[in-house]
Design a protein that fits this description.
This protein starts with a strand and ends in a 7-residue tail after the last helix. 28% of the residues lie in helices and 27% in strands. It has a four-stranded mixed beta sheet with strand order 1-2-4-3, with helices on one face. It is built from one helix and four strands, in the order ββββα. The protein is α+β, with helices and mostly antiparallel strands. The mean pLDDT is 94. The longest helix has 24 residues.
Length: 85
């Protein structure tokens, strides 16, 4: 687990979480829990259809997903989440 500070709020970041260990990952590469202040990123290789992804593709997907979830947290902490649709 790592931590990231987003506008003064600390979020715990869980990387490489197996799909089987977190049902909230179903159908997603990651998610942000605003109430629990945590960001969860799936182990890409545990997602059906991604088991044989090339290393560089898996890494790029991981990086993109982390960035995506941090933006969600930023929008929530800034109060702009309702304007992001």
């Amino acid at each position: 687990m790592k931590k990231v500070n987003i506008l003064g709020t600390t979020y715990k970041v869980y990387l490489d979480v197996p799909l089987a260990k977190d049902p909230n990952l179903a159908g997603a590469f990651g998610y942000t829990n605003f109430h629990g202040k945590k960001i969860v990123i799936a182990n890409i290789r545990t997602i059906p259809g991604w088991e044989d992804a090339e290393d560089d593709v898996a890494f790029d997907t991981l990086a993109c997903t982390v960035r995506h979830e941090i933006i969600h947290a930023y929008l929530m902490e800034s109060g702009l989440n309702s304007s992001s649709n």
